[in-house]
Specification:
Helix content is about 30%, strand content about 25%. The protein has helices at about 1-20, 25-45; strands spanning about 50, 55, 60-70, 70-80, 85-90. Strands 1, 2, 3, 4 and 5 form a five-stranded antiparallel beta sheet that branches. The longest helix is centred in the first third of the chain and has 18 residues, at about 25-45. The termini are far apart.
């Protein structure tokens, strides 16, 4: 019984410290980066993008973090079909949206 208790505790600790994050294959990572870049380029003016590797958000969706124009941070959450679910802008001076994309998201 003692062995089972110790085993269970070790297993629980491993899950807590390593997390349950999903890893994505190369094709999915490439597509997520392409979608993220395309979305930003098609909806914002004068934008230079640097992306991090996609990862699983705490809610389970894929997210891509990055910066634009030398340090203006953002995070994009993607749906299962790799369409943009949401954009969180973490900078007051993020590039301006294109006029045609203010009321409706432009194609990406």
């Amino acid at each position: 019984m003692k062995f089972l208790t110790i085993s269970f505790l070790l297993f629980t600790m491993i899950l807590v410290f390593t997390g349950c994050s999903e890893t994505y294959d190369e094709a999915t990572v490439a597509e997520a980066k392409t979608v993220t870049k395309s979305y930003l380029e098609n909806n914002y003016k004068n934008i230079q993008i640097e992306l991090e590797e996609p990862e699983e958000s705490p809610m389970g969706s894929m997210k891509v973090d990055g910066t634009v124009n030398n340090g203006k941070a953002f995070s994009i959450s993607l749906n299962e079909d790799l369409t943009v679910a949401s954009l969180v802008i973490q900078s007051d001076d993020f590039p301006e949206e294109k006029a045609a994309c203010r009321e409706k998201t432009c194609e990406y």
